Amino acid sequence: MSWICPKCERELKHINATHYCIKVSVDSLFEGRPAELELVFDKILAEVADWDDVLISTSKNCIVFVHKRTFFVIRPMQKQLELKFYSKTKPESPIIIKSTFHAGKYENSTRISQLTDLTMELFGMIKDSYILL
After folding, report:
1. How far is CA 79 from CA 19, 60, 94, 112, 126, in A?
2. Domain spanning 3-132, CATH class
């Protein structure tokens, strides 16, 4: 059962969940950025939104995907989307630009800028993060 914050209208997992309480639209996060980034985001959203029990909300500078816990974050940058997701082991993939171990799991980052960057490998890593958390 989810809860919607009356101030920012963000959907959260439970009543009074700690969050950055500010009302932000997805559109505002893409203002002044290349249209291709929004197309890439829409493609990711179309895939991940269909997974069971996923809450999607916006924060000050990113879009947050929550299953039992936050498993995926997209931060629109000037010319790229920064994607952050988690894994049990350190990925040995060239698409990972940063991987740090924290609280028993790896926090992994990659950056993409076009539809061709969306590969089965990348979606597999995001799905693994969803299952992990």
Report:
1. 27, 18, 20, 9, 21
2. alpha beta
Cβ–Cβ under 8 Å, residues 128 and 87: yes
Q: How distant, in Å, are the alpha carbons of 33, 87, 104, 120 from that of 127?
A: 27, 10, 18, 10
DSSP codes, 32-72: TS-HHHHHHHHHHHHHHTTSTT-EEEE-SS-EEEESSSEEE
Which residue do the tokens 């082991």 mark? 89
Looking at the predicted structure, is the pLDDT value of residue 9 above 70? no
The pTM (predicted TM-score) of the whole model is 0.85
**Which residue in this structure is represented by tokens 């989810």?**
2
Going from N- to C-terminal start, the domains of the chain cover 3-132
19 CB-side CA count, 13 A: 29
